[in-house]
Specification:
Helix content: 10-25%
Order of helices and strands: EHEEEEHEEEEHH
Distance between the termini: 27 Å
Radius of gyration: 20 Å
Oligomer: single chain
Number of strands: 9
Amino acid sequence: MSTTHVRSDEARDPVGAATVDLRLEVVVIPVADVDRAKGFYARLGWRLDADLPSDNGFRVVQFTPPGSACSIQFGTGMTVAAPGSAQALYLVVPDIEAARGDLLARGVQVSEVFHPGTPGAQFRPDGTGLRVGEPGPRHTSYRSFATFRDPDGNGWLLQEITRRLPGRVDIAETTFTSTADLAAALRRAEAAHGEHEKRTGRPDANWPAWYAAYMVAEQVGAELPR
């Protein structure tokens, strides 16, 4: 699979002006039955932020996935899109097997973990035979997926990412969005540090600094310490 990388100097504003932060806040998804959708997303364990009905029939319901800075909204009088027409809505996870297991425990039908056998197979309905039924080789970031749908057929795509491509995260704003995300990063740093000590042949008393350097480098896509 080929990947196009954009250098930081290529991503600058073409007129050289200072850019204004534009943070994706909410994605509206179309549903036919608001209460049914509300029950489904509550069952996922997502945080209910609002359920605001109005006298004129307008209603907005907002949920936020655990660890996410972006929310979803659905309701009545919000969109003319056909119910179920929202597809390939990404949910990024640090451990796809754990994420899939959590969905199954909540009674959600979710696909097996797979990686695309050909570019774009993750977007094909039911994979059309182009999905390989196992995680991406060595659980490489961006390569392992699983899918599920809400009661209206809106499609969600789980994607496992543990190490970002360079330039995707500002090193000055490195954050972990949940305790689970931080714990997973610590476990990966622990495993890598164990290999580091094997290579050096001695204990590393400064392991906290090594862990920190590893976790930041992993998140921003920089060269990992050895």
